[in-house]
Amino acid sequence: MTNKAIAQSFQLLGQLMQLQGENPYKIRSYENAYRKLRSWEVPLSSMTDEEITAISGVGKAIHGKIRELLDNGKMNTLERYKTQVPAGVQEMLQIKGFGAKKIKTIWQDLGAESIGELLYAVNENRLIELKGFGAKTQEDLRQKLEYYQQSKDQFHYARLEAVAEAVLEELRQLLPTGKIELTGKIRRKMPVLSQIEVLIAADDGSREKIAQRYATEKMAGDTMDIRFGEQQIPVRLYYCEEANFGQKQIEYTGNTAFVASLRLDSNKGTNKREEISVFEQLNMPFVFPELREQAFSETLTKSQLIEDQHLKGIFHVHTTASDGAHTLEDMCRYTQSLGYEYIGITDHSKSAFYASGLKEAELIEQWTAIDELNQKLAPFQIFKGIESDILNDGRLDYEEDFLRQFDFIVASVHSNLKMDEAKATKRLITAIENPYTSILGHPTGRLLLSRKGYPIHHEKVIDACAANAVHIELNANPYRLDLDWKWIPYALEKGVKIAINPDAHSKAGLHDMHFGVLAARKGGLTKKDCLNAFGVEEVKAFLK
Predict the structure, then answer these.
(1) Are 308 and 517 in contact (CB under 8 A)?
(2) Does 515 score more than 70 pLDDT?
(3) What is the band of 27 on the pLDDT scale with cuts at 50, 70, 90?
(4) Is the peptide bond before 379 cis (omega within 30 degrees of 0)?
(5) Is residue 513 within 8 Å of residue 476, measured between CB atoms?
(6) CA-CA distance, 465 to 468, in Å (whole number)?
């Protein structure tokens, strides 16, 4: 092992011990060893035991650990501490300027065990109440976390959407006579992406212009890879002749199963320039790009998918009463200004101590404020709701005489996430069978790129929703997008309506509805099956 690698092992050991609240004198000795060894010029591997022990600050204990690393590539003490700290918490230590002391507070007080969970907590405004944190520190950490995630190989769709538009704009300026469109997974609106893909039909000199502009020579046949912007986002470019643009767009957009099912090689028509013409020549109806995830079937030929403008209201919104960033009135007025007809307020329930959940008396005060606002903002409608924690046994977080006073209830799991499928499914179904549950919130609790959802038997959960007239949330936060779009067709088959909810903890969070719509389209959701595409009076009936 190199001196640098050995030094980093001591640094990590000190950090892990600090996370565990160990003896500060021992921690300091390992920190000193890190600083000493990282700048030590003579390779430790070439030194005798006596020479290593003679280094200032290296006693017998540290020398023994150095010897372990040199002989075995491992240090037993370090390996033991690694088993005591979740891998996601260890990963947090890699974020520059974010020390073990703060990580310990977040891990112990918030229970965040991964970068994604921490970023989600930041977006929910949960850090500012912790000791040693504030709004400025939280914002600084948000930027560090986003930068860290951007440096990885996977991206949330929401992260790349605006970048993709910038790529198109720049390429169209560079090749003003070319035909340039998004293709591949980003055109299919996949929630997680590894790159941006673009299809180009342009003159013969276009490749040289692009290679010169982006300083790349990575070409392979009709493909070129470039990096875009300061963050060096990966972009793959595909080239074709303009006369074949429509057919090539189909080939590059759809997944393998979809493209194979179309039998494109049998297309003898002369107009391959436009996609719609290719479908017509194949005697097949047009399929929206979002739906091209499986072999062609008539079920994919939707005449109209849900669109942003179809949504008339918003459920699942938090305020400063619990862990939101803006007041009740701010959230309501801003929602109204966006053109919505109604909002459902759902602060956290009393068991959610981590999010300042509301006790009964606090909710009664909120209801009074909502009554006053309903008079001020009429005809805009504010529904009195709660995001009720689903307790470990499936009960909701208030007694029955209080539950019945809400206009609606979003029931969600937030604690004890480490469940097997049987327990998780039973817990959800018990909550669904509660007569006061209106909407099942983020059914699996997943955080994309960060935390797998707890395993559930989706069919049983959806069947229970159908039997109890409970709607299912598609959580529009781009870190969640839960219910997964793959289960929307089964829900629709069972007559369960989908509520696209932003889970907004700020005014900015309301705009996540857009990403929820994109995910819903992938599942084939139409206006008639979306709860919040209905007007106020219809929604009142559904909630009852």
Answers:
(1) yes
(2) yes
(3) very high
(4) yes
(5) yes
(6) 5
The amino acid at residue 261 is S
* Contact indicator for 322, 410 with CB cutoff of 8 Å: no
- 3 state DSSP class of 399: coil
Alpha-carbon dihedral sign for residues 265, 269, 271, 276: negative
Peptide bond into 483 cis (omega under 30): yes
Alpha carbons 254 and 382: distance in angstroms, whole number = 42
Instruction: Band the pLDDT of 133: cuts 50, 70, 90.
Output: confident
Range 278-299 average pLDDT: 91
Give the single-character DSSP code of 325: S
In DSSP terms, 498 is beta-bridged to: 472, 530
The secondary element (H helix, E strand) that includes residue 461 is helix 458-467
425: its two tokens: 């499914």
Please report, as a single letter, which amino acid is at residue 18.
Answer: Q
- Specify burial of residue 389 (Cβ count, 10 A radius: 0-12, 13-18, 19+): buried
Q: For 124-136, what is the mean pLDDT?
A: 86
Q: List the beta strands (DSSP E) in 65-154.
A: none
Amino acid at 498: I
How far lies 389's CA from each of 33, 227, 352, 356, in Å?
47, 44, 7, 13
Give the pLDDT score at 219.
67
Q: Are strands 223-228 and 219-220 parallel, antiparallel or unpaired?
A: antiparallel
Q: Token digits for 513?
A: 């509805």
Nearest-5° angle of CA 160, CA 479, CA 526?
Answer: 85
Band (71; pLDDT cuts 50, 70, 90):
very high
| Of 22, 119, 10, 127, the residue nearest 69 (C-alpha) | 10
pLDDT at 486 over 90: yes
Rg (CA), the chain: 27
3-state secondary structure (DSSP) of residue 544 = coil
Give every CB contact of residue 327 below 8 A, 6+ residues apart in sequence. 319, 320
Is the predicted pLDDT of residue 477 greater than 90, yes or no?
yes
pLDDT digit string, tens, across residues 206-244: 888 898 888 876 667 789 999 998 888 999 999 999 999
pLDDT score for 407: 97
Q: Say what the pTM is.
A: 0.82
Nearest to 33 by CA among 71, 72, 60, 73: 60
Q: Which residue has the tokens 């504010």?
A: 382
Give the number of other CB atoms < 10 A from CB of residue 195.
19
Compute the distance between CA of residue 386 and CA of residue 361 in angstroms, rounded to an integer. 14
Task: Write the pLDDT tens digit of every residue in 359-393.
Answer: 999 999 999 999 999 999 999 999 999 999 999 99
Say if strands 439-440 and 179-183 run parallel, antiparallel, or are unpaired: unpaired
